[in-house]
Amino acid sequence: MNESIKVIIDTDPGVDDAIAILMALVWPRIAPNIELVGITTVGGNVALARATRNALALLEYAGRQDLPVAQGASRPLSGRYGYSHKFHGQTGLSRRLPRPTSRAINASAVEYLAHQLQRQPGQCHLIALGPLTNLSQLMAAHPHALSQSASIVVMGGAVEVPGNVTPHAEFNFYSDPVAANEVISSGIPLTLVDLSVCRQVFIGRDEVENLKSASPVGRLVVQILLNWFRKDPNRQLFEFYDPLALAVALRPGLIARRQLEVVVETSDLARLGRSKVVSNEGPVAVANDVDGEAFAVLLYDLFELTRR
Ligand code: RIB
Ligand code: CA
Hints:
This protein is an alpha/beta fold. Helices cover 35% and strands 23% of the residues. It has an 8-stranded mixed sheet with strand order 3-2-1-4-5-6-11-10, sandwiched between helices. It has a two-stranded antiparallel sheet with strand order 7-9. Calcium ion is lined by residues 11-12, 14, 17, 45, 129-130, 242.
């Protein structure tokens, strides 16, 4: 019997975050030993309150309002989040969900993560899909907590490729460059799923319009994607940023990686949030190739998708 694999997602839902959360919820369909045990929220794509409401609403939609959601940072270590309403919509989701009846737990994201990681050393996989403010604040308050995780996968950065917010910076790192640098250059081993591989896994408008699913969660994912495309006729591809990071955490063989030492620009305003490789040997496993076909098959399996 495979040992139980616990997953905690730190997230700013967010359309692609939502798909990643739903992947984790249905993953037991293909691997019963894998379970999402909790979510921590952070501002980023949308304000913290909205990110938290979206996380609660997604869990409730999937019948998992039993899972805890702990609220984290409403602003970065310095400055303010820029939000990404143009891409994610004003509510952060492209498909309206009923107002959740459940509420976030009283513990903060930092308290929840410290408790979970230190109570079950080596058992919880931590997947960070938003700005790294919560992880940075966890490091400050509980210096050994992060190293108690079974693994850490971060969606962020643009390593030696153009950014998606500025020519140099990816959104999560740009949203809180100080926190990103503290986590990425901390020396703690982690896997970085950056734009260079996320841009290789996408789905087109036509394919989405011909998708159907045998499951309610799969139908929600199809609706989320369909509505995202319908928001703007110029949208031709949806890139699976956060879903790929989630998949890599649970199926590491999806990517090839190189061990690098990476820092994040925090002072040069023209390059704020830029991911810089400072050495070809280091604790950061940067994804440098992805099996896009295997990812697509995984997505179809998880969400029971077929073509009309
Ligand atoms: O750059 C992509 C990342 O920024 C994703 O996590 C997306 O949700 C946005 O937060
Ligand atoms: Ca995100």
